[in-house]
Amino acid sequence: MGEEEKPVYGRILLKLSGEGLMGSEPYGIDTRVLREIAEQISEVHKLGIQIALVIGGGNIFRGVSAASGGMDRSTADYMGMLATVMNALAMQDALEKFGIPTRVLSAIDMKEVAEPYIRRKAIRHLEKGRIVIFASGTGLPFFTTDTTAALRASEIGAEVLMKATKVDGVYESDPVKNPQALRYERISFSEVLNRNLKVMDATAISLAREEKMRIIVFNLNIRGNIRKAVLGRQVGTVVEETSYA
Ligand code: GTP
Known about the structure:
Blueprint: E1 11-16, H1 31-45, E2 50-55, H2 63-68, H3 73-97, E3 102-106, E4 115-116, H4 119-127, E5 131-135, H5 145-156, E6 160-165, E7 170-171, E8 183-184, E9 186-188, H6 189-194, H7 202-210, E10 214-219, H8 225-230, E11 237-240
Parallel strand pairs: 1-2, 1-6, 2-5, 3-4, 3-5, 6-10, 9-11
Antiparallel strand pairs: 7-8, 10-11
Helix pairs in contact: 1-3, 5-7
């Protein structure tokens, strides 16, 4: 292993969007894509770092969309939380096929399928080299899985929150609608909030800012990106406290 193969972080929280598991399917989980992501995570795990995961649920159920369609918001959010449990179990299965012991910890008690979320237990699992997947969001409606990621990252003392998504980073405007939009390499939390940039929701960003939790936003679909980020190489956009001119 060369000098440049040394990870710059000891403990990370990786946030995957539920949609990231869909691949080209319109809904649910594409097992091929799931395997590919698990393989990428297993490569990073081999570097010896501690990894916690939060996976969204939007590939199965989107609470916000259902609420805008007239469903009670709390009910819709609870359904979304249940969707994250399915993704967590699927990812646990995929990671264990690569030989990585994985524990799913659920914020909603369902002990027949997952361990309950206990912060100190999560840290112990990480110290033992297990990947920990936090399921059921925060266990509370009105909070997104991005907020869950910022919360759990803070609780376990992760050094960085890596948000793997379908775009290459943070743009000045929506790159899908405006192909000319510029991508930031680095940006501060305050700029993200002031410019209302769609990185994560404001609750997640505020918490990360308060905790000085660096966020790296990058494209999950580009193989090797997770590894690059962990090795401290330039990938996507870094959001942190420093103000950039
Ligand atoms: P150590 O205490 O460090 O040995 O951790 P461990 O997770 O290997 O030990 P434990 O005996 O707690 O768990 C053994 C297996 O049972 C693991 O796969 C756990 O994920 C699982 N497990 C533990 N507690 C629960 C629970 O409350 N519900 C479910 N569904 N599984 C559990």
